[in-house]
Amino acid sequence: MKIEDVTFVQGATTLAQMPPAPISEVAFLGRSNVGKSSLINQLLRRRNLARTSRTPGKTQEVNFFLVNNRFHVVDLPGLGYAKVSKKQRAYWQKLIGSYMKERSQLRVVFQLIDSRHPPTEMDREVIMLMPESDAEHVILLTKGDKLSGNSRSKAIAGVRKVLTELGQEKPIVLTSAKDGRGRDEILKWIATYVA
Ligand SMILES: Nc1nc2c(ncn2[C@@H]2O[C@H](COP(=O)(O)OP(=O)(O)OP(=O)(O)O)[C@@H](O)[C@H]2O)c(=O)[nH]1
Ligand SMILES: [Mg+2]
Side-chain half-sphere of 73: how many Cα atoms within 13 Å? Predict the structure, then answer.
């Protein structure tokens, strides 16, 4: 698949605000600062489309991008960032949970996990939440450019082990927003599920 046309549609802070059009969606989900917005920019080859920051808690809306006039890419706020208020954190967590369960347009959830660290409790919770959604589930390990060759395969094996412990078997892709690794595979999954 080639990315030809990308436009920002809108941001939403409630389910009701989300675009009603029956257009297939792929969402990027994971803890704050894991690299969701950066990876979306790399995927869509647009430098500053989704806003990124070194400081966690950057994305504060559910942002919808229309790609090739065919599907939406959805940039979600990060889960579990300690420095936003407890109330705010709980709100996002709840909204993202109902988004995943109720949004009928949702075809694929790309769950981002930092390749440099073992999956956190929050990562495990997201893995366990997925069976409640009708969407496909693909794991993207982020910031793969920061790992040496040996630790890359270790990172993948570590996440596979956690998935097995939780009774899940999902595709795992090592990615980098910096050097673009994994991009073709992400596009392949999108093409497969966004028919
Ligand atoms: N080296 C490297 N740094 C990355 C990569 N992806 C993201 N980063 C850095 O990680 C930080 C967070 O990136 P974001 O894309 O804003 O993360 P996010 O998951 O959207 O964060 P929130 O919006 O707060 O949930 C930024 O400083 C990025 O430059 C990557 O693949 N490689
Ligand atoms: Mg972001």
Answer: 31
Ligand with smallest separation from the Cα of 33: 1
The domain at 6-193 falls in which architecture?
Answer: 3-Layer(aba) Sandwich (3.40)
For 180-194, write each residue's pLDDT tens digit. 999 999 999 999 999
Does residue 54 have its Cβ closer than 6 Å to ligand 1?
Answer: yes
Domain boundaries, the chain: 6-193
Ligand 1 touching residue 62 (CB < 6 A) = no
Instruction: Write the pLDDT tens digit of every residue in 29-61.
Output: 999 899 999 999 999 999 888 888 877 777 789
Cα angle at 104 between 101 and 195, to 5 degrees?
Answer: 125
